[in-house]
Amino acid sequence: MCGIIGYVGRQDAKEVLISGLKALEYRGYDSSGIAFNVKGKIKIIKKEGKVLNLEKAIDKNDTTFEGIGHTRWATHGIPNEINAHPHHVGNVTIVHNGIIENYIELKNNLKKKYSFQSETDTEVACALIDSLYQENKDKLVALKKTTEIITGSYAFGIIFDDEPDTIYAIRKDSPLVLAEKENNFFIASDIAAILPYTNHYYLLKEGEIAKLNHDGLYFYNNDLSIIKKDENIYEGTLDDVMKNGYDHFMLKEINDETKVYQNIINSYLPNLDITDLEKHFGSFKKYDHITIIGCGSAYHAGLVAKNYFENYANIPTDVELASEYRYKKIFSNRKELVILISQSGETADTLEALRKAKENNMDTLGIINVLSSSIARESDKVIYILAGVEIAVATTKAYLAQVLILSLLALLMSYEKGLTTKEEANKHLKDLKKVIDITKLIVNDNQKYQLIAKKIYNEKDMFFIGRGIDYALCMEASLKMKEISYIHSEAYAAGELKHGTISLIEDNTVVIGIVTDKNIASKTISNLKETKARGSNIILVTTSEIYEEIKTDKFYNEIILIDNVTPLFQSLIITTPLQLLSYYVALYKGENIDQPRNLAKSVTVE
Ligand code: F6R
């Protein structure tokens, strides 16, 4: 987490850094700061809280063409100005995204020479670089040695006092893009920060060093020889990182869901034919077991997909939290496919889980959004979810793109195993058009969700209950509600409620029941009625088909009714209304929807 930016060029560096930091703010917003060169001296300004506070503190009259900036998600030390980046020690100023794991040991060694002001690991790294520079009198050598000494993850932007118009960068396990455009040179944690200037970028490998000054952008390999790099092109546009008239990125991104489905169809299913998928995804015939790994919503997408892999492709599937998987015993199996799901492709726990699976000789498949991200690069195989840039911290369109890609993969596996014929598979695929039409109606006609939100936004607690796949959907719906509205919310397996948790249900407690699986609908409905008997306020989320069976039985207070499509894609259109409900609840509460407290979008720490 944390976002870093660096700029050397012809424009006002303060402005480039501030606008870049605003684009990176989704990565953390506990504090921000910039360091820039004014007439050969490095000036540092830092502020607690959002980039707006920093922007107000800047003296517009300072003339500068070089600088580095940072937006922080606190890991070591509370969010205050002392712990804010950039840090300056001796002759060196740095910004850092990542975690230095051996910083305590390094700090103990460096204490004789330096007195530390902050509680951060970054200040220690800064002192180390300074010390190595003093010893070696050569910046590249000092940086190479730094990479050999520190352990953990990092992307550093570095300025030396005696070369204030030059930025150096090194990275390991934290993202960094580098770019040049007409004598303007950039580093950034994410292309979003530099898209107003260019969509061409370079990536830096572990062990390489980058140097940016007014003469150019240079890359050095481990032997400190200059190397050439291939340029990458980001296919999106500036619109991807703008709100485009929406009040919040979250609402924009929910509205983008139909575009994402269309992108997936255009790219992987141009003829809506199962053989298209074979062409684009490859063959998965050899696998008889699947383990899906992810964190947060990505983990929830895995839980939804488990139902598809088991029911359609008849493949036993385990779903693991990445933070647990990386420390558990692994039973190596050559016929097992390990699927890593990650929007950012940089989540530290998921990346380590991937490495662990590879160490155990398992085949790995990344289901990833961000192109060329670490998990995408290190997985044996990647399927991109094509969701475009997602900026709101709470994922919406990327989560649904993950669910769609996984459902398509399960259908392909079912077809490859001869469990689904080509005709049957194509019949499922045909419903994707319906999914798009229904989602369009849901997002355009969102009054219903606003009305329900208005009735419940003052609640303190909420429960989401369901069975089977509906339980998995509840977990995501509940996470979305709590993370942006701060209402305590729990997802529960409907049948499990009576074994303890039902004691929390009292008059007017909101219980949202998700009921889409008609085979077990009556069971969940009975559980909902058990909460009704204790005074709950029930919001039923169900399909037209199930509603037909129960329409004379008005046990609920509110109903969200969704048209039926093939069960393979039903989860997609059940989720969008629940995302909108969370959005409007948070809106009525006046919360910071795109940047909920304590969170960051890309969790690059363990
Ligand atoms: C919740 C949310 C998080 C992420 C999780 C994994 O709305 O966005 O729970 O899903 O941090 O992130 P990625 O998918 O980038 O690995």
Structure description:
By secondary structure, the chain is an alpha/beta fold. 38% of the residues lie in helices and 23% in strands. The strands form four sheets. The chain has an eight-stranded antiparallel sheet with strand order 3-2-4-1-10-9-11-15. Helix 3 crosses helix 4 (121-136) and helix 15 (447-456) crosses helix 19. The longest helix has 23 residues, at 422-444. Fructose -6-phosphate binds next to helix 9 and helix 16.
Give a brief description.
The chain is built from 19 helices and 25 strands.
- Name the quaternary structure: single chain
Distance N to C terminus = 10 Å
| Small-molecule binders | fructose -6-phosphate
Return the average pLDDT rounded to an integer.
95
User: DSSP helix count?
Assistant: 19
Query: Rg to the nearest angstrom?
Result: 25 Å
**Shape annotation:** globular
- Major β-sheet, in short? 8 strands, antiparallel
**Strands in their spatial order, largest beta sheet:** 3-2-4-1-10-9-11-15
Structural class: alpha/beta
Helicity, as a percent range: 25-40%
β content, as a range?
Answer: 15-25%
Q: Could you list the spans in which at least 5 consecutive residues all have pLDDT below 50?
A: none
Let me know the number of strands. 25
